[in-house]
Write a sequence for this structure.
């Protein structure tokens, strides 16, 4: 119903605030510094950003869950939407990491295929699941579509060691990128309202 989708909009806006900070910006750092690395150094940076970004994503998800519960939305269904959509944040993290790796390695054709496929899948799942199960179908489609990346991209989870100076520079850039995006969102939202 119209009311259900209105309540979902509240949850989507809440989750949308956290979208720029998935993995605390590990994908931004990977694009920036991964393109400057070659061979095994590049592979090490990819693995490091994936593992560290995943750890940061777990922390971010806990913050989202605690914030969602603390806000105590008027309707319990909004809180349920938020809790289910935390699963989406992990999928977006993996999708963004795959895109960043492909861009850092200058594999633009694979990047384009991944982008087009994931967007097409989002459309098909969104329409199909909504027709089948209504608002909860739409929520499930939002949560499921980013995981198509596991069908199209192979992640390598290997613990690696990179120099401390590179770690500091990497996270300094990554976190500043996230803060910049969040400030941009605030300015845009203030302009809208």
């Amino acid at each position: 119903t119209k009311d259900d989708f209105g309540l979902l909009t509240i949850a989507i806006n809440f989750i949308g605030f956290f979208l720029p900070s998935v993995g605390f910006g590990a994908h931004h750092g990977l694009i920036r510094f991964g393109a400057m690395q070659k061979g095994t150094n590049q592979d090490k940076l990819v693995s490091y950003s994936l593992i560290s970004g995943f750890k940061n994503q777990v922390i971010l998800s806990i913050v989202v869950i605690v914030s969602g519960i603390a806000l105590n939305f008027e309707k319990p269904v909004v809180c349920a939407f938020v809790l289910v959509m935390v699963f989406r944040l992990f999928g977006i993290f993996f999708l963004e990491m795959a895109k960043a790796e492909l861009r850092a390695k200058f594999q633009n054709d694979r990047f384009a295929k991944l982008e087009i496929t994931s967007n097409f899948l989002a459309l098909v799942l969104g329409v199909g699941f909504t027709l089948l199960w209504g608002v909860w179908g739409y929520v499930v489609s939002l949560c499921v579509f980013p995981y198509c990346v596991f069908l199209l991209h192979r992640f390598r989870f290997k613990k690696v060691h990179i120099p401390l100076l590179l770690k500091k520079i990497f996270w300094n850039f990554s976190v500043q990128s996230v803060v910049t995006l969040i400030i941009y969102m605030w300015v845009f939202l203030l302009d809208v309202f």
